[in-house]
Amino acid sequence: MTKTPKASGKKTAAKAPEAAPTPVERASGVIDAIVDPLTSALKRAGLRRAQKSAGETTPAPAAPAPATGAGKPGLAISPLAVPFPLIPPIPGVEIATGRAGFYKHEREDLLLMRFAEGTSAAGVFTRHGVGSAPVDWCKRQLAATGGADVRALVVNAGCANSFTGRPGADAVRRVATAVGKRFDCRQRDVMMASTGVIGVILDDSKITARLPEVESRLTADAWAQAGRAIMTTDTFPKGAYATALIDGVEVKIAGIAKGSGMIAPDMATMLAFVATDAAISPAALQTLVSLYTRTTFNCVTVDGDRSTNDTLLLFATGQSGAPKISRPGDKRLADFREKLEAVLLDLALQLVKDGEGATKFVKITVNGAESPASARKIARTIAESPLVKTAFAGEDANWGRIVMAVGRADEPVAREKISVKFGDLYAARDGLVSAEYDEAKMSAYVKNQEFEVSVDVGVGKGSSTVWTCDLTKQYVAINGDYRS
Residue 324 has what DSSP assignment? Predict the structure, then answer.
């Protein structure tokens, strides 16, 4: 979670303008035109395929990995916590963690990854108007190199290094330079990411001083430690793993993510790092990560607040022995595309299940909208409504609040055709309370930790799904005490 430091006096928040898209961002806008086979397959299969694959391809131990030494002291593990999966080494990836000291309490807060020569990289980043120094760095370097031969990743928790001007940018450059010297690569081949408090300049000496020690611990088998090192108010580490076939050769896909609060689409607020041993060109990798961000990380929301530091990086080391793929629509990538989407969706849903103070995990689907974009806006309005979310927290199937949110989305709806369902139970149908409405059954249904709400607005064929959580007193407590 990325937060602002405390300050005295009242301030008036103003929405920052969207920055002009970079070449990396523009890739998302032309995807449909250049990967027709891929987008056609996505429209046919939708997210059901990814959800099914995530469940089938992500092995997990019986209990969550311990959170000792990570996250914020005193936070109870989310009742929706997901066990950390068993992630084997990914050829071409080495991992190490350490303590740089960005937190007062004892915990690891530094992650270092080293990649094999020739590793391709691609990324999707926040569209927040303020942004951050590490986001600016990654976007600039990926644009300069085209994502070719990225050699390292450095991540710190505890300091976002956002809204820090030139001093913050200089700190990022010094870290990249130091890592480049140790790994015998250019500074532009080092990716950077940060999470923590906004408005505090990164003390890069804390990182560079620990580099020799952390580098000495590089190993191929440390995904769980990596997941814990990047946590802030997360209550459990988040990971996902799958295997896929490319032209008959098995490849591995593994990823970690962090995020608990300040989670909203465009893109979802978080850090996520995914690596595969497949051999895929940077351009194809960029198309894939941009495309699947739409259907995964951009479909979850905890509190409706976007962050300054969103970063999703995808690395392909090419160490599997599978043939190199240069086109994202290549038929040989069919299974890989499916499993990559599954891994990203798995990570995205874990962010919601660790929403600050969350006790309910809710899938909201809107059908019958004028367009998919309209359906998505309506679904987000429902998912981010404080009144709807507090009703979920109180286990109240208050369908009136859902109808309220539908109307205030300012999208075309046919009032006389609107229906609202909790699971298979109709609360409203054809613009009226449903004749089969059963308060007792509805109340029993929303006592489940996980449930679904579906709405039909009766004007077209557009549909969209968004995942969210409830809003509890604990959310207020966590954020009121964030810097204390």
Answer: P
